[in-house]
């Protein structure tokens, strides 16, 4: 008789251990950004590790056959909280009263945070309630075509996610460079390349939010019709 898997075993799965390092890296990132802003390069390196390690925990889950609902939840929470934390930092740095268009920056970063959290939470809820993975073809069968592409076409998914994160990271770096620094030109050129992908990601988020809400409403309607 094979040994039964316990909750402790799941918590100690290799991909989940990698996930914990991502959480630590994100916390380190924000601690450095807030308390030691002069260490911005180290903060960015820590953030990039947290973002990139998401790829490796997925690879480990498949390699060691250690996929788990807890791992999926850990990934989702880490991704969303990391992005939210960076947007919070950018809100503070670009939304101060000494900067031109500060109100625009405040509103933009606030709306980006709200959209990111709400769209992904609704997506997760709408599929989890049916015990379907939020990235699966089955879970997104009746969603808007951009949402289906986002979760089924890995290059498109990667383009949108990487573009959004690189946009936020680059904006943070640019805010810490001195005027005349040659990296300013490089950073500006990078933004020109990734902002279209970042905008596409927000469009996907809008449709992810609306279609997932509609999916939950359809589920409620079916249950109501069964009762009647």
TrEMBL record:
Enzyme class: transferase
Named cofactor requirement(s): Mg(2+); Mn(2+)
GO MF: CDP-diacylglycerol-inositol 3-phosphatidyltransferase activity; metal ion binding
UniProt keyword Heme present: no
Membrane topology: Multi-pass membrane protein
Domain of life: Eukaryota
Catalytic activities: a CDP-1,2-diacyl-sn-glycerol + myo-inositol = a 1,2-diacyl-sn-glycero-3-phospho-(1D-myo-inositol) + CMP + H(+)
Keywords annotated in UniProt: Lipid biosynthesis, Lipid metabolism, Magnesium, Membrane, Metal-binding, Phospholipid biosynthesis, Phospholipid metabolism, Transferase, Transmembrane, Transmembrane helix
A cellular component term, taken from the record's GO annotations: membrane
Annotated EC: 2.7.8.11
Transmembrane segment boundaries: 12-34
Subcellular location: Membrane
GO biological process, one term: phosphatidylinositol biosynthetic process
Pfam families given in the database record: CDP-OH_P_transf (PF01066)
Family per record: Belongs to the CDP-alcohol phosphatidyltransferase class-I family.
PANTHER family from the UniProt entry: CDP-DIACYLGLYCEROL--INOSITOL 3-PHOSPHATIDYLTRANSFERASE, PHOSPHATIDYLINOSITOL SYNTHASE
Protein name per the record: CDP-diacylglycerol--inositol 3-phosphatidyltransferase
Organism this protein belongs to: Chaetoceros tenuissimus
Lineage of source species: Eukaryota, Sar, Stramenopiles, Ochrophyta, Bacillariophyta
């Amino acid at each position: 008789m094979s040994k039964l898997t316990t909750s402790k075993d799941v918590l100690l799965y290799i991909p989940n251990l990698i996930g914990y390092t991502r959480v630590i890296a994100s916390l380190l990132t924000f601690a450095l950004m807030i308390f030691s802003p002069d260490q911005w390069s180290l903060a960015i390196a820590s953030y990039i590790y947290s973002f990139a390690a998401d790829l490796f925990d997925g690879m480990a889950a498949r390699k060691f056959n250690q996929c788990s609902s807890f791992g999926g939840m850990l990934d989702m929470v880490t991704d969303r909280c990391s992005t939210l934390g960076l947007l919070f930092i950018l809100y503070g740095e670009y939304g101060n009263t000494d900067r031109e268009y500060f109100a625009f920056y405040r509103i933009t970063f606030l709306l980006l945070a709200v959209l990111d959290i709400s769209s992904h939470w609704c997506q997760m809820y709408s599929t989890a309630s049916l015990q379907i993975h939020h990235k699966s073809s089955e879970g997104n069968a009746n969603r808007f075509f951009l949402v289906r592409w986002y979760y089924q076409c890995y290059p498109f998914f990667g383009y949108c996610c990487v573009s959004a994160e690189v946009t936020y990271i680059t904006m943070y770096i640019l805010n810490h460079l001195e005027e005349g620094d040659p990296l300013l030109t490089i950073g500006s050129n990078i933004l020109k390349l990734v902002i279209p992908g970042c905008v596409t990601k927000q469009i996907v988020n809008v449709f992810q939010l609306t279609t997932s809400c509609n999916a939950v409403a359809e589920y409620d309607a079916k249950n109501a019709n069964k009762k009647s």
